[in-house]
Design goal:
This protein is of the alpha/beta class and 264 residues long. 45% of the residues lie in helices and 17% in strands. It has a single domain, classed as TIM Barrel (Alpha-Beta Barrel), CATH 3.20.20.370.
Length: 264
Amino acid sequence: MRTIFLFTLLLSATFSWGKSVTHQVNVKRQDMPRIAIIIDDIGYRKTDHAVLTLPADFTFSILPHTPFGKSLAEQAYQAKHEIMLHIPMEPMASENDHLLGAGALTVDMNEQSLRASLASSYQEIPFAIGINNHMGSRLTQMYKPMAWTMRFLKDNNLFFLDSLTSNKSKVARVARAFDVPELSRNVFLDNQLDEKYIEKQFNRLIWLARHSTSKSAIAIAHPHPETIEALKVLIPRLAKENIQLVPISALLATQKHLDLAASN
């Protein structure tokens, strides 16, 4: 009887200790700085399929109506990646607006044509959870097109990630006016296709995640072979440095919490 009693005590203590450790691990994990990395510009090249070799916590943003976009999005979705739409938006006149491609939103559109374009893109990839802008340095500075965009996103429970191609972007202000969840890019990882440059930007991403109020940071990169190979080398560092790689949706709740705190 005494043996059974001692065994029960030992089992109870072990279970309680296990729960305590699990709780400590979970708390520690919740307190870890987090980064999200979005790979966009996906869809025009067959080589873009190489993004499927990246871990599932990478988020992919697909250019609409492109030769490989839909099939790659479906494969990535089956592999548990979060999928966004990378919507082309009109840039400043000095930029390469001829590179906009299909599904572009331009300043000469009215609300009906803008919403129809967004609907066509979303219909192609209906499991997309949000959008970010491809180019768009002109359009994102304009209130009306952004308001029409936000109405569409609100109607379809989507969010907006501002690629921040303009420091005069109105995206955040308009999104909040329409109660649309929004986030913004902190770092472009591969403006230069150079291993040392990508590593430098990756280090900056980590620094921002550690020192920002939200304890998080967002990077955008592209499906270049050089970028993918560099990321495969860099990503294992995150666990050693107690940084979490998370899907983009994981940062939406954090942003909402900060917005609520700021409004009180």
